[in-house]
Amino acid sequence: MSDHNELVRLIKPRALPAGVLEIEATADERAALSQRFGVTAISALTATAAFGEKDGAVLVDGTLRATIEQPCAVTRDPLAYELEEAFSLRFVPPRDRGDHADDEEFELTAEDLDEIEYEGDAFDLGEAIAQELGLAIDPYREGPGADAARDEVGIESDEERKASGPLAEALSALKKD
């Protein structure tokens, strides 16, 4: 996590919120996050989170919703779209990972992949939501005019490139036989 988090929502594992927690980012938080993620604006950001516990870990299942504004990857025209992502996280206190050498490889389980260690008496759910948002933003998002712009300058789309070339010709010859 960064030294300065834009969306801070501290949660104490000893006093987990009951029911579903609703989170809504302020205008200043959204502006800071849009700068962090290199998009024009984040005009809305909300999340819901439900808490549970298992084996000393705090389990958080939720959904984030955002309205993202960014330039089209092809035309650079403004593009706004809605984003909705489900997330499942495990917050765990630091633990000894065993006596592994720095260059030694070891297996991670599926549960390890979305596990976030925290120190002290609270973890920052807001920063975890911000990171989930960052992963969900498509930096190469295309608007409705992208195909026309490609056609105008003679750039083939991925589909057109796949439909031509040596591999496509070989496959076409096999289908004919």
UniProtKB/TrEMBL annotation:
According to the UniProt record, where is the region Disordered?
140-177
One Pfam short name = YceD
Residue ranges annotated as compositionally biased, kind Basic and acidic residues, are: 148-163
Instruction: Please state what the protein is called.
Output: DUF177 domain-containing protein
- Give the species this sequence originates from: Qipengyuania aurantiaca
